[in-house]
Amino acid sequence: MADGQAEGGGFGPLAQVGYIWPGRSGMVTVSAVIPTFDRAAMVSEAVASVLSQRGADLELVVVDDGSTDDTPAVLAGISDSRLRLAATSNRGVAAARNLGASMARGRYVAFLDSDDTWLPGKIERQLAYMADTGQAVSQTQEIWMRGGRRVNPRRVHLKKDGDFFRQALRLCLVSPSSVMIERDYLRQVGGFDEGLAACEDYDLWLRMLLRGPIGLLDEALTVRRGGRPDQLSARFVGMDLFRIKSLAKILATEKMSPWHRDCMEEELVCKARIYANGCCKRGRVDEAARVWKLARQSLRDPDVPAHGA
Questions:
Q1: How far apart are CA 79 and CA 77, in angstroms?
Q2: Domain boundaries, the chain
Q3: Strands 58-65 and 83-88
Q4: Whole-structure pTM value
Q5: Could you give the angle at which helices 239-253 and 285-296 cross, rounded to 10 degrees?
Q6: C-alpha 237: how far from its chain's center?
Q7: Using N-to-C axis directions, what is the helix angle for 285-296 and 258-281, rounded to 10°?
Q8: Which letter does DSSP use for residue 34 in this model?
Q9: How far is CA 108 from CA 7, 136, 179, 208, 213, in A?
Q10: Beta bridge pairs of residue 64
Q11: Stretch (H or E) spanning 249
Q12: Which segments within the chain are labelled E, that is strand?
């Protein structure tokens, strides 16, 4: 198989790969995937937290998504036979994760953002949890850090266990950095939507929850660091716009029960009304009309009024 190609597909083409280091061959249980962009000051800590894991035959795939800083040099300076590197031309985090997953050789894929870290024992304990429960996908609790200090997440952000589809419609309740997924299951669901500039994780977890539960290892084994201007949540102020796009797309393309559709349509109408009303207050009437049209096209009753009773 030539560089720039991967077996299996399912996560998009590898045509824009700049370089791949093959790493070692042999059996792999877990493939960790780190997407990164301009994180020269942080990526080595994320990498170290993966390579220090014990209790599993592990490989690490790091995808540099077109960094303009010293990230490539930092990664090139790490010598470990378990490390595989790929570079792309700034296609976005969804495409970077999908590329890493397409290169994965393990039975399980575990994602980690390059500004986050895993605590010792994370992989070993999560593997044991999945073996005990038979879950195809699971997450762990997190430690939240902001500005170098530990903060307590709001109750609404605490991770859930099982079938929490309805709660997950409101906001993202699964952290990419804490999740572990059977590789074949990830391929079946379809990976991250590369058409979404943000909320691509929200979109994937909803599609998974349509198919079954997401397990929770109720231990804080992932460190999530936030509060910096380079994060997607800081770059995109109107995050609900991407959730609206996700909900409309899922309603139009996914099979689901009447109950799931009722819940999704209710949330879509709610989000679209709030977003459109905000646009109108700021004089962005055309944008409000576009958002409401997008939402309405996915509803069974397209005549739902833009304003509630």
A1: 6
A2: 30-235, 239-296
A3: parallel
A4: 0.87
A5: 30
A6: 18
A7: 170
A8: E
A9: 16, 9, 10, 15, 17
A10: 36, 87
A11: helix 239-253
A12: 30-36, 58-65, 83-88, 108-111, 117-118, 137-146, 149-151, 180-182, 215-226
Query: In the CATH hierarchy, which fold is given to the domain comprising 30-235?
Result: Spore Coat Polysaccharide Biosynthesis Protein SpsA; Chain A (3.90.550)
The token pair that represents 167 in the structure block: 């709660």
Tokens of 243: 């959730």
Measuring CA to CA, which residue among 37, 148, 155 is closest to residue 95? 37
DSSP 196-239: -SS-HHHHHHHHHHHHS-BEEEEEEEEEEEE--TTSHHHH-S-H
- At 44, list the tokens: 């080595």
Rounded Cα distance between 265 and 303, Å, is 13
d(C-alpha 9, C-alpha 296), whole Å? 34
What pLDDT tens digit does each residue of the chain (309 aa) get? 333 333 333 455 443 445 555 555 556 799 999 999 999 999 999 999 999 999 889 999 999 999 999 999 999 999 999 999 999 999 999 999 999 999 999 999 999 999 999 999 999 999 999 999 999 999 999 999 998 899 988 888 888 899 999 999 999 999 999 999 999 999 999 999 999 999 999 999 999 999 999 999 999 999 999 865 554 544 445 789 999 999 999 999 999 999 999 999 999 999 999 999 899 999 999 999 999 999 989 898 766 766 654
224: tokens are: 């999530």
CA distance 104 to 34: 12
Nearest to 184 by CA among 2, 3, 308, 7: 7
How many other CB atoms are found less than 10 A from the CB of residue 168? Answer: 20
Number of residues written out for the chain? 309
Estimate the crossing angle of helix 239-253 against helix 200-211, to 10 degrees: 30
